[in-house]
Write a structure and sequence with these properties.
By secondary structure, this protein is of the alpha+beta class. 39% of the residues lie in helices and 17% in strands. Strands 8-7-6-2-3-4-5-1-9 form a nine-stranded mixed β-sheet, sandwiched between helices. A hairpin with a 2-residue loop joins strand 2 and strand 3.
Length: 222
């Protein structure tokens, strides 16, 4: 079977193209390979930086394998489909300075949701550092601190965020300013991601009008 799409992130492609590696299903649409989690996103659902879009589901505890260009779930063999770049190409012209850095100790692994809400907030902030300010080293440091304190899925998405790789609703937000897809994302994930992005300097609503000219005229250095 061929996937409808797959993320072209380095981490996911290394897993799929590398030597065969065994894994197990944490949930019907989450497969764990060592410390890395692959999301099997349902057709038409928001795509993920660690995701493969497919109708295939697993049974909890079912064995899986990845490598050699395919993903195996039980007896089902899934080949990658069309590639989807999880790093946004459309970014806001102006942004605000990043706010105070959220503490990994206070937020990582805490809160409600499939991924703890604290992880989602941190991921939004980390992705904002990369996409809005180009602060890759700072983002990688914070992601590393947070990833060591949380569950494998949260750690996986934090590391993707440190590369600027984000869920599809974040792409919509950055390209159009439309918050609705992100706020509808997951049980609590979307609002926590938005909070993190805003804390990192993403301008909401009229902030782009009010601060846009001033930011455009401001000196470049940080």
């Amino acid at each position: 079977m061929r996937a409808l799409s797959h993320a072209t992130s380095t981490q996911l492609m290394a897993l799929l193209r590398g030597p065969k590696r065994g894994g197990t299903a944490l949930a019907p649409r989450l497969l764990l390979f060592g410390g890395y989690v692959v999301s099997l996103t349902a057709p038409g659902a928001p795509r993920m930086p660690n995701g493969i879009e497919t109708a295939i589901e697993a049974h909890v505890g079912q064995l899986a394998a990845a490598g050699g260009g395919v993903l195996r779930v039980g007896k089902q063999v899934l080949e990658p489909g069309p590639g989807w770049d999880p790093r946004p190409t459309s970014l806001p012209l102006h942004c605000l300075a990043a706010g105070p850095e959220p503490s990994a100790e206070l937020y990582a692994g805490r809160g409600a949701g499939l991924t703890p809400a604290g992880d989602d907030l941190l991921a939004g902030y980390i992705a904002g550092l990369v996409l809005l300010h180009g602060e890759t080293k700072r983002a990688a440091r914070l992601a590393g601190e947070a990833a060591s304190r949380t569950v494998p899925l949260g750690a996986t998405l934090l590391r993707h965020a440190a590369k600027g790789e984000v869920p599809e609703p974040v792409h919509v937000l950055l390209a159009s300013g439309d918050t609705r897809p992100l706020l509808a994302f997951g049980h609590s994930s979307g609002i926590a991601w938005l909070r993190g992005l805003v804390s990192a300097g993403y301008p909401l609503g009229r902030e782009r009008e009010v601060f846009g000219h001033a930011l455009a005229a401001a000196p470049a250095g940080r």
